[in-house]
Amino acid sequence: MDLDIGCSFAFGVPVATHAVMLFEPHSTDLQKVVDSRLEILGHAALPPSSTYVDSYGNRCRRITFNAGDANVEFMARVNVSEENDETLEDAELAPPEHLPDEVLYFLMPSRYCESDRLADLAWSTFGSIRSGWARVQSVCDWVHGRTEFQYGSSSPGYSALSVLDRRVGVCRDFTHLAIALCRAVNIPARYVFGYLPDIGVPDLGAEMDFCAWMEVFLGGRWFTFDPRNNQPRIGRVVIGRGRDAADVAMVTSFGQIEMVGMTVWAEIGSGASWNDPTRPGRNGPGLIR
To answer: C-alpha 192: how far from its chain's center?
Structure first.
């Protein structure tokens, strides 16, 4: 099925500043970008942007913002599966010595996932559970059950240990804690963020945002787990993968930039043209014209 996805960012820029942004999805056999459009608007002329692919396979966009107000708006049509996230309950975990070199990296502690400091807790809580899918699901159940989702509860320094201590966070925090616990019991896990439409689930009326989840390496490949929602979902569109959120920041600025508005949308494709004023995101909140 086709999804219409997109986002808009409104910035205040005191002086000319270079930035790297992640908002463009991967294009693969599982999620194919059919068409896309990018607009960079502001009160001063802006130079062309450029892209590169980082070491994790993410498409990163470089933009130099001139001083003043600026807006970045991206929209795309992406073809994805109509099925829920794949489940394979008999997927087994390979011992570390049998893991591919590039996967072993995702057993290491990282900035927001202090797996080395959670080893005792992880082994005492999950060590007796059958290794593989059942153990990962137990980690997700545990994190989901003891952590309260609360907008505004996180911060740039909020890590897996913070979530463990305070028992509150947003989707990225649920994910960091689950990743750290998985790595602590030798399960390779990586951080993922992207678009997640409300398909096949109740609409709770909350404003849409980017979503974070994790992928774990079982049975020789990566599977999706979502400790925040803790259920298979339809229509995930991956923007970025990495060790944790530090590797896939939406905006990395080499100077001062203030974000004054952001809008995110993802829904089943309507077939509307890019210029249709009723299309999601067109002249939406935070958009500077």
So the answer is: 4
